[in-house]
Amino acid sequence: MTDIESLLHERMLTVPDFPEPGILFRDLTPVFAHGESFRAVVDALVAPFIGRFDAVAGLEARGFLLAAAAAIDAGVGVVPVRKAGKLPGHVLTETYRLEYGTASFQVNPDSLPPGSRVLVLDDVLATGGTINASVTLLERAGWSVAGIAVVLELEALNGRAALPGRDVHALLPL
To answer: Whole-prediction pTM value?
Structure first.
């Protein structure tokens, strides 16, 4: 087990039956609330991609925390990938399927110059639907996806299958 995996196991909470019976929720809030742990996680997320991105995209909502910290550390900008209806002005929208329906992400395509290399950050890779939608959206905006980094990967849900050919880095496979 790596140091970052040990840190995550030590600080992360596992909450049974949340948000509904049968779900085992992995709560990263204590990791983010502890300064040294948060820094270690952010550093570990971006390490494989240093020098390969011009901006960091964070998926609403916990991805915002990771992306903002990573962008500041790397000296690059941050692009929020927002839920529909949260961004003003000209936006692109990508709709994706959920187990109980559909949802949409939006981004302002004028946020970065065309061809910008964007690193996508989020807390969890589950089925891959939300991350795949964000990747599609970023590419529709004219940017290239430099890679994808997540804190946790729920391997049983096979989310990587929704991201073929993508450089995906997970700190803790579960």
So the answer is: 0.95
3-state secondary structure of 166: coil
Q: Is 153 a catalytic residue?
A: no
One-letter amino acid at 108 equals N
Domain holding 115, by residue range, is 52-173
Evaluate whether residue 91 is within a structural domain. yes
Instruction: For residue 86, give the CATH number of its domain.
Output: 3.40.50.2020
Catalytic one among 26, 52, 97, 99?
99
Tokens of 169: 């880095």
Q: What is the pLDDT along the chain (174 residues), one digit of tens a residue?
A: 899 999 999 999 999 999 889 989 999 999 999 999 999 999 999 999 999 999 999 999 999 999 999 999 999 999 999 999 999 999 999 999 877 789 999 999 999 999 999 999 999 999 999 999 999 999 999 999 999 999 999 999 999 999 999 999 999 999
CB 56 within 8 Å of CB 71: yes
Pick the catalytic residue from 26, 62, 117, 166.
62
| CA dihedral for 19, 21, 27, 29, sign (positive or negative) | positive
Residue 99 designated active-site? yes
